[in-house]
Structure formats: C-alpha cells, structure tokens
Design a protein that fits this description.
Layout: H1 5-19, E1 28-29, H2 40-56, H3 60-81, E2 88-91, H4 94-104, E3 112-116, H5 121-134, E4 137-141, H6 146-149, E5 154-160, E6 181-184, H7 196-199, E7 203-207, E8 219-223, H8 225-228, H9 266-282, H10 284-303, E9 318-322, H11 326-335, E10 338-339, E11 341-343, E12 348-352, H12 359-369
Parallel strand pairs: 1-10, 3-4, 3-5, 5-6, 6-7
Antiparallel strand pairs: 2-8, 7-8, 9-12, 11-12
Helix pairs in contact: 1-9, 2-9, 3-9, 4-5
Length: about 375
C-alpha cells in the first residue's frame, strides 16, 4: 500500500519537530501548560541577538532591529489568533493583557464582572484588584453556564477559553452576548485552533511561553476596535506612544499597539519568534491535531487504571487525573523523568500533551504511575 504523500510529509515534519526539543532526550516533558519545552532554535536566536549587541553595541541600528523583530512577532501571533496585526498587542504574559483589559474598562461600584469557578490566579488577581480598588462585584458561575448567568449589572464576562484545571472549553454561547467577553487564552493559543472572530470575544489574552514554546516574558492581547475605544491606558511610555518626542502632548498609537508592554528586549523577541517558526514549519493544523489526539489517547488509557479517573475535559491538550497525593507524586514522577504538575487544592495531577510528545512519553507516564 502506498502511503499518502501528504500524510507522509506530516509524519516526517512531526518527527523532526520532536528532535527540536533537547529536553525530550532525557524526560517525558508533559508540562507545556506551565511552560513549554524550549526548542534549540530559540536559544540560538537569542544568543545571536546578544552576540550582535556585544559586538556592535546598542545604538540606532539596534533599536531598528528590535522594531523589526517585534513587527515579525506581532504578525506571527496575529496569524495564530486569526486577527489583523492592528488588533494585536505584544505583552509579557497572559496576565498583563487581562489586567490591561479589566483595568482599562474603569468599572465602578455597582458594576459586576461575571467569571467561572475554575479560573487561574492570572485572571483572579485582576478581578481582585477591580473589587478591592473600585468596588466592582465579582460573581462566579460554572464555566459551562456562564452565558445563562449574565445579569442586568454584568459589564464583563471574563473566563478561560480552555480551563487550566481540566481542559474544559468556554461555552460557544458566549459569542452571542451583548456584554464584552474577555477570554484567558493561556491554554488555548498554540494548543488548539483559535479564531477570535469565530469565538466572538472582545478581548483574548494569550501566552508566548506555554504552547508556543517561547521564553518567559512573552504574550499577546487581541482587542476589537470597538472595545479598544473604551479602554483607558494608564501606563504610557516610549513603547506605546505614536510620537514619543511630543512630550506630554504625545498620544497613544491608534491601533492595539497602545496596549503594548513598554519594553521587550531583542533577544526575548527573537527567541519567541524562532520558537513559533519551529512549530509553524511542522504545520499548525498538524500540531493541533496531533496534540489533541495524543491527549485524548492518554485520557482513555488513564480511565483504564484504577484510581486514575480523568477529570471531565473537552477536546484540548490538558489531561487532569486523580491522585491521592498530587504534590508528592509530582515530585516522585519528576525524579523518574516525567515532568507534569499538580493542581492546587484539587486531587489532580495534570499532563499537558504537545505535538512534540509521542506514545513513548505517554507510556513512560503510565508505567511510572502503576
């Protein structure tokens, strides 16, 4: 039987993808939901930028190079979210984008933000600030019931696109709401296909260091033009001003660059761009398909083990499962070369399955558990 050349090409590219991550030579790395494995190409790219700075100094050419890199990264991230580059800001993490959106709405006492009962501290921190500093009421509802829980005082729905604890998805009905929707995409972008227009969200904050395998200190924020006009920007500086030389009269960029973090160094941006290119060369459709399929396979196999029942989940890349001693078992697994995380305050371990993983990684986890 002749193998379809498209399938063969995809198989070859995914095999080559695994070889890009040196950590996989020593461990079953299943922790991209925290930080993705760093590809060798990313460290080479960062080293090249540092070497350039070392030998050439940092003057006009250096800043032109940094602008070139940030423009390229913005384009790459926008493509992953399916949005225009004009609607995409570069941030240092998911949390920064979330905080900018919630803080920029300038909500006050009497206003309400609706969220789910399984959110990450990165979102909860910004919600706590809105409550403590401005008297905004924060109300929780189950993730799957958020659309029905919107009330007359709800001014924003803020929740995960893909829940960090179990891998459940936000309900599609959120796209039909009239109130703005902010999605925490830390476990979405890079892990599963994302189309912000199909999601119908007004803002989407994502991470560069998780499923995009970039360095810490990278992220993105998508904001619709309509919401952009409503968001105040308290932090202003060289990085997000249209004409910094105008002094106190300087205005913000008209597009989403007004929400850019105020400083990203060239080596970090170069590493993030290189990591995204490594994954892109394997084909994003194939990357998503393989990761989701491997995660589903792991969930099915865990269900066959006594005492390892998987948590309810969606077709994501996260698999949380039962453990009598999550923190202690995480440490023991790490000593055996299996890297994953435990979920605080829940009796779960969580495996984050990427396209760079293979069946041997899953077997290593399962064998170590039994």
């Amino acid at each position: 039987m002749t193998l379809d050349m498209r399938l063969f090409s995809r198989f070859v590219s995914l095999s080559a993808l695994r070889a890009e991550f040196p950590v996989l030579e020593r461990a079953a790395y299943l922790n991209a939901g925290t930080d993705g494995p760093l590809p060798a190409a990313a460290t080479r790219a960062a080293a090249a930028e540092l070497e350039r700075e070392l030998l050439e100094g940092r003057s006009v050419a250096h800043f032109e190079r940094r602008t070139e890199l940030t423009d390229a990264l913005r384009t790459a991230y926008a493509a992953l979210l399916g949005c225009d580059t004009a609607d995409l800001a570069l941030t240092t993490c998911t949390t920064e984008g979330i905080a900018q959106t919630i803080g920029g709405l300038e909500l006050a006492r009497g206003d309400e933000i609706l969220t789910s009962d399984e959110e990450h501290p990165g979102l909860l921190g910004a919600l706590a600030a809105a409550s403590e500093l401005h008297g905004v009421e924060i109300r929780e509802a189950p993730l799957g019931e958020l659309a029905e829980a919107v009330g007359s005082r709800t001014r924003l729905v803020a929740c995960s696109h893909v829940g960090w604890m179990s891998g459940s998805f936000a309900p599609a009905e959120l796209a039909e709401l009239e109130v703005p929707v902010l999605l925490d995409g830390a476990q979405g972008v890079g892990a599963v296909p994302v189309d912000v227009h199909a999601l119908g969200c007004d803002a989407y904050a994502g991470a560069g260091q998780k499923w995009l395998c970039g360095p810490d200190g990278t992220g993105m924020l998508y904001v619709t033009p309509g919401l952009r006009e409503r968001l105040s920007v308290s932090r202003r500086g060289y990085g997000n001003l249209a004409d910094p030389s105008a002094g106190v009269e300087a205005s913000l960029h008209e597009d989403a660059r007004r929400f850019d973090t105020l400083a990203l160094n060239a080596e970090t941006v170069a590493a993030a761009l290189a990591a995204a290119e490594v994954l892109g060369e394997a084909g994003w459709a194939a990357v998503h398909e393989r990761a989701i399929a491997l995660a589903a396979s792991l969930a099915e196999q865990l269900a066959q083990l006594e005492g390892r029942e998987p948590a309810p989940r969606g077709p994501s890349t996260l698999v949380s499962f039962a453990s009598e001693d999550p923190e202690g078992e995480r440490v023991r697994l790490a000593e055996a070369g299996v890297i994953l995380r435990n979920i605080p305050d829940r009796p779960w371990l969580r495996a984050s399955v990427g396209a760079w993983n293979d069946e041997n990684d899953l077997d290593r986890l399962l064998t170590t558990l039994t």
